[in-house]
Write a structure and sequence with these properties.
Blueprint lengths: L1 H11 L25 E5 L3 E2 L4 E5 L7 E4 L11 E6 L5 E4 L2 E2 L9 E6 L14 E7 L1 E6 L6 E5 L4 E4 L16 E8 L12 E10 L1 E4 L5 E3 L12 E8 L5 E8 L2 E3 L7 E2 L11 E8 L5 E5 L4 E6 L3 E4 L2 E3 L2 E3 L3 E6 L6 E5 L5 E4 L7 E2 L4 E9 L6 E9 L7 E5 L7 E2 L9 E6 L5 E6 L7 E7 L9 E4 L4 E9 L5 E9 L3 E2 L1
Parallel strand pairs: 1-3, 2-4, 3-5, 4-6, 8-40
Antiparallel strand pairs: 5-39, 6-38, 7-8, 9-37, 10-11, 11-12, 13-14, 14-15, 14-17, 15-16, 17-18, 18-19, 18-21, 19-20, 21-22, 22-23, 23-24, 25-26, 27-28, 28-29, 29-30, 31-32, 32-33, 33-34, 35-36, 36-37, 38-41, 39-40
Length: about 500
């Protein structure tokens, strides 16, 4: 898949090329020896060319832009270097690779900044969003550009610019409890946002979904005698093309194979037994592996929802746990799944599709949300009412080593009733909210680190600042990535 994305990127830029499509940031990858670097002095904005070194010689206060949205062929290992020689500030801007017939959506460009002098880490710098509300759920698309925040009771607030602006979009006022963001493909997608939809669930209400015009519409079951409109919905999970599962208390887990497919009530694998239970948390990976947890202590795993579910007892150190399972999450690639209970519980992880489980080194408490990034390397959880010596009353716990160790984030403000968390697929964008449904308000925050924003991002420098970028190819999230190879001076990351 990565090789295909890289090929498409190169074709869109006017050329071909080979090499590894998804190397770790740092040294040049693939393509053999890099081409010779051309030195150019500039006094006005330009579109970059590969293997070129730009000296910004302009003076004044107007920024000089160097766009990475190139028309030339770009191959892994190609470089771009910028040095500030004059007093004018300069900006390395990202943008999008235009759509092609083979790839209807544009490919966003991103700069990985982990080797940048003064690079901000994810979770270090937080931006408050909107006003305090009774937040209950947050969700993110794989790029961290389309965000959802739900207050309970209230509306669904959607951002399509990584949290800068939000719009309730005429969403109904409901007791919103869950949402999932998914991508589809289609023509005329200028900036990769038109084909991003949201599936949402309301407790004591219905399922709702954004349509092609961005309006909210009630989801119909398509099954005779099955009304989705007034149910105690608890959780939804959707992946690309609208493949989705939805769960409510005292009902089967429902599944659809695409946005155009009817919903069906799922069963236990090899039987006709419907999956009726007090479902609270469900999660679906892009590979089709799914997990579901019930407040009645049941846990189900499926590797093919069309074939049904398999019960998986949660066994930790030889002991079977029947917790009041409340939250479930799974990596986009299906490699890691997590579950946590609603009251006085721990966080439990599995790396073999629920066959074996381990307890994470997080506090005992009331878990309110769990999120896992694309490859399972980053895991985040929110909880309140933690117990034990030295445990904070409420915290946002994050692991960046695949769940081996967790540590609480230093959050701004005075909130302790942390309610929800969502990660982008690369794990570098976090959305976190506090609040207690129908009772206490809390603040919504976003944080991005280790990279610029996808598409409309930029790296800003000035006189004496110098940076060299190397092109890596396509990322698993479907972006064209440049990485900082070396730098000196002072920078701002947008």
């Amino acid at each position: 898949m990565l090789a295909t994305l890289t090929t498409l990127f190169l074709a869109a830029c006017g050329g071909g090329g080979g090499g590894d499509a998804g190397p770790a940031p740092g040294p040049a990858a693939g393509g053999g020896a890099p081409a010779a670097t051309t030195a150019v002095q500039i006094g006005s904005s330009v579109t970059a060319r590969p293997n070129t070194s730009y000296a910004v010689v302009a003076d004044g206060s107007s920024p000089i832009g160097i766009s990475l949205a190139m028309a030339d062929a770009v191959q892994p290992g190609d470089t771009v270097r910028v040095t500030g020689a004059g007093s004018a500030p300069w900006q390395l801007t990202t943008g999008w690779v235009p759509p092609t017939a083979a790839r209807p959506s544009p490919m966003p460009i991103v700069i990985d900044t982990r080797n940048l002098a003064g690079n901000p880490q994810p979770g270090q710098v937080w931006t408050p969003r909107l006003t305090p509300m009774e937040w209950h759920w947050v969700a993110s698309d794989r790029l961290g550009r389309v965000l959802v925040a739900m207050d309970n009771p209230g509306q669904i607030h959607v951002s399509r610019d990584a949290g800068q602006t939000w719009d309730p979009g005429l969403s109904p006022v409901q007791n919103w409890v869950g949402a999932s963001v998914y991508h589809t493909s289609g023509p005329n997608d200028v900036n990769g946002l038109e084909n991003v939809n949201v599936l949402a669930a309301a407790f004591g209400g219905g399922l709702f979904e954004t349509n092609s015009s961005g309006f909210w519409v009630a989801v119909q079951s398509g099954m005779p005698g099955v009304d989705f409109s007034v149910r105690d919905w608890e959780s939804v999970s959707a992946i690309d093309q609208g493949v989705a599962i939805a769960a409510a208390l005292g009902a089967p887990i429902y599944y659809r194979a695409s946005t155009s497919s009817p919903w069906v009530a799922t069963v236990l694998q090899g039987t006709t037994t419907p999956t009726v239970s007090g479902w609270r948390g469900i999660a679906l990976s892009q590979t089709g592996v799914a997990v579901a947890g019930s407040q009645d202590g049941e846990l189900l795993v499926s590797t093919n929802l069309a074939n049904g579910w398999t019960p998986r007892p949660v066994v930790v150190n030889g002991t079977v746990l029947r917790d009041s399972w409340y939250r479930a999450a799974i990596a986009r690639d299906g490699s890691v799944m997590a579950i946590a209970g609603r009251f006085n519980s721990g966080l439990y992880l599995s790396r073999d599709q629920g066959v074996t489980w381990t307890r994470a080194n997080t506090p005992t408490g009331d878990y309110t949300a769990v999120s896992i990034n694309g490859d399972g390397s980053v895991i985040a959880a929110t909880l309140t009412n933690a117990t034990g010596a030295g445990a904070p009353t409420g915290s946002v716990q994050v692991s960046r080593d695949g769940g081996a160790t967790f540590a609480p984030l230093q959050m701004p403000g005075t909130d302790t009733n942390w309610r929800a968390v969502a990660l982008s697929s690369d794990g570098n964008a976090l959305t976190v909210a506090a609040g207690t449904f129908t009772a206490l308000t809390g603040q919504l925050y976003t944080s991005v680190g280790n990279r610029t924003s996808y598409g409309p991002g930029r790296l800003e420098g000035g006189r004496g600042s110098s940076v060299e970028l190397v092109f890596d190819g396509a990322t698993p999230e479907g972006a064209a990535r440049w990485s900082v190879r070396s730098s000196s001076g002072t920078f701002s990351v947008r």
